[in-house]
Amino acid sequence: MKTITLNNGVEMPAVGYGVWQIAPEACERYVSEALAAGYRSIDTAQAYYNEEGVGNALRKSGIPREKLFVTTKVWISNAGDEKAARSIDESLRRLQTDYIDLLLVHQPFGDYYGTYRAMEKACKAGKVRAIGLSNFYDARFVDLAENMEVKPAIVQLETHVFCQQAKMRELVKPYGTRIMAWSPLARGMNGLFGNGTLQAIADRHGKDIAQICLKFLTDEGIAVIPQSTRKERMASNLAIGDFELTDEERGMIRSMDGGKPLAADFNDPALAKFLLDYDRQFNPGK
Ligand SMILES: NC(=O)c1ccc[n+]([C@@H]2O[C@H](COP(=O)([O-])OP(=O)(O)OC[C@H]3O[C@@H](n4cnc5c(N)ncnc54)[C@H](OP(=O)(O)O)[C@@H]3O)[C@@H](O)[C@H]2O)c1
Asked: pLDDT tens for residues 228-269?
């Protein structure tokens, strides 16, 4: 399976399985199916409330721990040195593991400097192998990357054919940070699965649109964490190693980039206000 080498030498599978919005009670089953389909990298978060289901599936799989790659994220309500440190121990307990492979600051709100410091300490203590960010853009990303000792290994961003993150890809280079695409299939938005250009490329290769999208992103050096609750799609989303896109096809897909996220613009103050209000109401850390 194709891997990406992070800026601290850790190897990460280029394709992982995401579990956002998978109910806690269903998570164990879907992650077990994903592991059976061949996934070895799982992306969860404290705020998904399903770390325990991920942990159950990993433990019961019998797959040696070193062959697995587990990503989780510290939520806003756990921000700050002490709360983040406690939440990391709690994530380890829920995930039923001695270490997290990749730990991210989930959203750029609250005391995320304190959170990142706690993550650096967890890294030094051997509880975490690599740390990074999620939804940090532009000046916020640069400020943190410049100021912290451990440079973010990953920044997880909404990335798909309609939002290819050209600017962020350049901006993260000096820090050796890699991009991990959330919603790599754009959750089907913008008519992705009915897109004529993508369908024509897919037909040429005997593949489907999802495979073309995932192949394109991983070829660009971007990690992807598609989600599906259907076994056949779990498998097909992983089966992208047996064909090559042509330069012309890559050019056609590059020209689809609208340069703007479709789901969430983290530079938008209205989104920040909405998410902070939401967090105060449903604060999962308290
Ligand atoms: N860091 C963050 O803030 C953040 C935000 C959002 C997401 N994420 C992570 O990114 C992961 C993936 O993102 P996402 O779940 O939003 O979106 P996604 O992976 O782009 O799309 C998932 C949707 O596409 C469908 N799908 C999957 N494979 C398909 C295929 N081969 N053909 C047709 N439809 C297909 C799925 O439906 P079926 O289940 O019916 O197949 C599901 O509705 C999440 O699970 C989460 O781990 C992170």
From this structure: 999 999 999 999 999 999 999 999 999 999 999 999 999 999
- The structure tokens listed for 227 are 């989600």
Residue in this structure with the two tokens 């938005």, named with its chain if needed: 189
CA 5 to chain CA mean position, Å: 15
Pocket probe for ligand 1: among 51, 157, 182, 230, the residue whose CB has the most ligand atoms within 8 Å is 182
Pocket of ligand 1 (CB under 6 A): 18-20, 43, 134-135, 156, 182-188, 193, 208, 210, 225-230, 233, 236-237
pLDDT tens profile 140-166: 999 999 999 999 999 999 999 999 999
Active site residue 17: no
Q: Find out whether 61 and 33 touch, Cβ atoms under 8 Å.
A: no
Angle at 125 (CA atoms; ends 150, 87), nearest 5 degrees: 85
Cα R_g (the chain), whole angstroms:
18
The fold of the 12-282 domain, in CATH, is TIM Barrel (3.20.20)
Tokens at 265, concatenated: 């613009």
Q: Between the CA atoms of 150, 141, 260 and 246, what dihedral angle is there, to the nearest 10 degrees?
A: -30
